[in-house]
Amino acid sequence: MVLNAPEANEPVDDHVYQFDFQQGWIDLTLEKLDWVDAWAVATVVESTQFDSAKLAVKTRTLTRDLRKRALVLNGNESNLAAAYYTPEGRAVADFRLDTYSEEETPRPSPAEVAPLLSRISDAEVVGEPDVRYLDLAVGPAVRVRADVKNKRSRLGFSRGWTGGLIKYAVFPPRLDSLSVVSVRWWNPQDAAEATRLTDGLATTMKLVPADADEDEAERNTGS
């Protein structure tokens, strides 16, 4: 499955990010961030991408989970949102793509961005994050992997959970913006699988002209 997302700080008809998602990734990108659109997307996904005979959860439970996940992942105007599900309907990991830039402000370096990638509002990092500097097909990148746990409420009644995250900040040449791929999981048992999926996905990330992407879509549809 190939998914595309417009580069946020560039004209939509200029270029797009492209990913080659493996089977199991579900596109949850919303055109409008509202309950109606999220429910419509969730209903279509549940009915077309899952085999009811393999589900270990009720279809209405899966649809509700897809809807909630789509609303959360599309918050703050993300460029692209997706989630990885098992055939049984269990969510393994969440994915989103965000692009950042400021006019008349130089783009920060990978070293400057690295410590920011492990900062998250609803959890805290456990131990020291694993930071790596890489060269991807799309450009230089910094990868941060960290184990996280939830922050307890003031009264200490919140349910505890531990999980993890991987973020890739990429710096395409000749652009002023940087884009961040974020993948999170909530069960320690999913750490190895989520890490494998994320690292594999990052290698497929590329920036292509929007018109080239349209030509490919026409070839795939035979038009």
Q: What would you note in describing this structure?
A:
The structure is a single chain. The protein contains five helices and ten strands; from the N terminus they run E-E-E-H-H-E-E-H-E-E-E-E-H-E-H. By secondary structure, the protein is an alpha+beta fold. The model is unreliable at 6-13, 153-158 and 213-223 (pLDDT under 50). It has a single domain (2-221), classed as Mog1/PsbP, alpha/beta/alpha sandwich (Protein Transport Mog1p, Chain A), CATH 3.40.1000.10.
Question: What is this entry, summarized?
Answer:
The chain is of the alpha+beta class and 223 residues long. The protein is built from five helices and ten strands, in the order E-E-E-H-H-E-E-H-E-E-E-E-H-E-H.
List keywords for this structure.
single chain, 223 residues, alpha+beta, Protein Transport Mog1p, Chain A, 26% helix
Mean pLDDT across the residues is 84
Q: Tell me the series of helices and strands, N- to C-terminal.
A: EEEHHEEHEEEEHEH
Write the CATH fold name: Protein Transport Mog1p, Chain A
Quickly count the domains: 1
Which helices and strands, and how do they pair?
Layout: E1 2-6, E2 15-20, E3 25-27, H1 35-49, H2 59-73, E4 80-85, E5 91-100, H3 110-113, E6 123-136, E7 139-150, E8 162-170, E9 178-185, H4 191-202, E10 206-209, H5 210-221
Antiparallel strand pairs: 1-2, 2-10, 3-4, 4-5, 5-9, 6-7, 7-8, 8-9
